[in-house]
Q: What sequence folds into this?
């Protein structure tokens, strides 16, 4: 193949160290021969300056090649003389994610992640406390937590208020919603500002036995290392270097070569400020939560009182363009007051359910409950699809959101390759549409043709995607 007319590139979301290049390529070669024995023409390992490329040539369904490039992140490029179907390409990408996940899991490594925001207190990365875990689930998009928590609260209200309990519950929910911005701020560990808006993330990969032994110690050991690194670099106005980090770990008896250390720097406040200008809104309160869970969420009753929560795990996992895409998605929710819309929808559904269920008997009451709540989640999916669409047009880069979803949603997308599994996902109590559907939809966007209404277009696309999942 000499002339390529079709080319698509994706980041798979995995890091392969230089020491593992040969082993990784051998592993992938074996998987390709196992899965594509009748369609693989050749597999070659190419060396270009400082890069290694595994090139796989296929002859079915048409002639095309896959290049796996190892830079800082594993990148997959598909080239063909003819255009491949979007769904076929997506399935290839997900499958190679699956192969790479198997390889990375077999390496048995632990990952120490240190997060710094110069000028702000040094905070350890940690698991959610029970209180923060509950509040995070309640106020960052989990309708399931919202539903079950207020189901329990409802029992208490009915015990004391009788027939007036539904109104008391709605009043209680309203107060919490009005305070949601403050609660989100409480969940976060740092509040960003213009002067303190840079985020640095250090990733150190060490053997799993060494990592397990370190975890069993008190986290004060990690905090000591983290502080020493900061005091010798960012605290003095100097940059972070892999050499310094490796030396500080060695002083504490932890062997982590420079080649297994990554340092990422992102000007997060400026990035969000630029995004807000594209949406013509003021910069909301920005909080960063120091946890490996990759997520971002916006909450608040209005634009003026909105809070944007960004998890450090999101910054660690995604590149800068992908972070922009995810935060652009969240800003779309803020601009369109989706938290308020969802709250109003949930409150109306609750009141209707309470007053209808008292007239129904078993099993009609259960059927109505399932239909009512499932319908609420299904309508919430329209708003999520609208946020995807609006972010893609405002940022003019649907591919960035595609890559972000691929990284954040594996192995969910692997599961959703099955149309039947996607069909079940449409009925799940989750406000997001199936990720597989979201990616396919974004891949087919024509940025030059802006729809008249992002919401109406999203409703139509969701209904088509739902129908397509069982036809």
A:
């Amino acid at each position: 193949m000499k002339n390529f007319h079709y080319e698509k590139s994706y980041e798979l979301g995995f890091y392969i160290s230089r020491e593992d290049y040969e082993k990784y390529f051998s592993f992938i070669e074996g998987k390709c021969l196992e899965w594509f024995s009748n369609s693989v023409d050749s597999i070659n390992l190419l060396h270009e300056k400082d890069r290694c490329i595994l090139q796989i040539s296929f002859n079915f369904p048409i002639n095309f090649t896959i290049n796996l490039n190892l830079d800082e992140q594993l990148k997959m490029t598909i080239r063909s003389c003819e255009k491949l179907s979007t769904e076929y390409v997506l399935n290839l990408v997900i499958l190679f994610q699956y192969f790479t996940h198997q390889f990375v899991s077999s390496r048995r490594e632990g990952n120490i992640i240190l997060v710094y925001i110069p000028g702000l207190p040094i905070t350890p990365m940690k698991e959610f406390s029970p209180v923060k875990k509950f509040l995070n689930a309640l106020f960052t998009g989990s309708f399931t937590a919202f539903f079950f928590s207020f189901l329990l609260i409802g029992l208490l209200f009915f015990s004391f208020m009788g027939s007036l309990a539904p109104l008391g519950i709605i009043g209680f929910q309203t107060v919490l919603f009005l305070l949601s911005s403050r609660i989100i701020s409480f969940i976060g560990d740092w509040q960003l500002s213009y002067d303190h808006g840079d985020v640095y993330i250090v990733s150190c990969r060490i053997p799993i036995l060494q990592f397990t032994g370190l975890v069993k110690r008190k986290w004060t050991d990690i905090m000591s290392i983290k502080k020493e690194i900061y005091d010798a670099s960012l605290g003095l106005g100097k940059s972070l270097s892999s050499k310094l980090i490796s030396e500080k770990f060695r002083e504490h008896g932890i062997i982590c070569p420079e080649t297994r250390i990554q340092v990422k720097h992102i000007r997060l406040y400026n990035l969000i400020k630029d995004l807000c200008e594209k949406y013509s809104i003021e910069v909301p309160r920005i909080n960063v939560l120091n946890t490996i869970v990759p997520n971002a969420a916006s909450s608040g009753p209005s634009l003026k009182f909105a809070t944007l929560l960004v998890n450090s795990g999101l910054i660690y996992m995604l590149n800068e363009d992908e972070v922009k895409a995810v935060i652009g998605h969240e800003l779309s929710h803020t601009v369109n007051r989706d938290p308020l819309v969802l709250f109003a929808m949930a409150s109306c559904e609750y009141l209707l359910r309470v007053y209808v269920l008292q007239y129904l008997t078993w099993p009609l009451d259960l059927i109505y409950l399932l239909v009512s709540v499932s319908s609420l989640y299904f309508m919430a999916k329209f708003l999520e699809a609208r946020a995807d669409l609006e972010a893609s047009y405002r940022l003019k880069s649907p591919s960035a959101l595609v890559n972000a979803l691929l990284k954040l949603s594996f192995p969910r997308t692997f599961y959703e390759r099955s149309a039947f599994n996607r069909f079940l996902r449409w009925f799940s109590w989750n406000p997001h549409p199936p990720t597989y559907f979201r990616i396919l939809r974004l891949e087919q966007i024509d940025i030059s043709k802006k729809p008249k209404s992002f919401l109406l277009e999203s409703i139509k696309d969701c209904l088509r995607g739902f129908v397509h999942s069982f036809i």
Observations:
- Residues 279 and 322 are 17 Å apart (CA to CA).
